[in-house]
Amino acid sequence: MATAAPPETHAPRARLRAARAPLLVVGGAAVAALGLVLVDPHEPGSWGVCPLYALTGLYCAGCGGLRATHDLLVGDVAGAWAMNPLWVLLVPVLLGLWLRWLVRALRTGRRAAAPPAWVALTVAAVLVLYSVARNVPAWAAVLAP
Questions:
Q1: What does pTM read for this prediction?
Q2: Which of 2, 37, 48, 105 is deepest in the core (most CB within 10 A)?
């Protein structure tokens, strides 16, 4: 009669399954990063244009994000800051959250739970306020890309 394998042998598989999502995210980010290094978004039209800016002439929270990411990838922090200061501040936070996600998946073998609703609302509010602030003429010299 066959006996079930002890639970310890299933734990490594569960941890690897739980780590699949964060590893896929970092793989996708690495491919996108390679694309941004190879095709400079500072060249007009190389990555298209922001639809909101093209339609309205207004900057959104993401305007300058590709150029800022390119600048970060090539080591130009000042250039990245000039393109999108919010993104420059968010990159280390996102890297830390990703690392926490990966470590937790590898330690526990459980998939990440969705964040509470207040997190999404706070992020949305920050993005809207930042978008508005970027279009205030007095702040455009600091916040506009």
A1: 0.83
A2: 105
